[in-house]
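Our consortium's second objective concerns turning raw sequence data into structural hypotheses that experimental partners can test. To show how far this objective has progressed, the report includes one record in full. It was chosen at random from the queue rather than selected for favorable results. The single chain below, 89 residues long, was entered without modification.
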Amino acid sequence: IDKEKKEIYIAFNASHLPVTVLLPDRPGHRWEPLVDTSKPAPYDFLSEDLPDREVAIQQYSHFLDNNIYPMLSYSSIILLLVSDAATNG
């Protein structure tokens, strides 16, 4: 049985202005982007089989390392909580 925490973070920006959301701090874990509707396809959904997935995730790391995420207007995001061990190999 997988005892890993399964948490997601979902946010919607219905404003015409960009916003920065503050993410919950989860020691030993980090947030990883899955969906960002403000990004062009195919980077709006970072599926496991996306060839540039790791590069795309790395572009978010500065924000995610600080538990924040910038959102453009009229967009939504889905982030997954993953273990630091899983992201570090």
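The partners drew two points from this record. The chain has one domain: 8-87. The chain has two helices and five strands. Both points have been shared with the crystallography group to help prioritize constructs.
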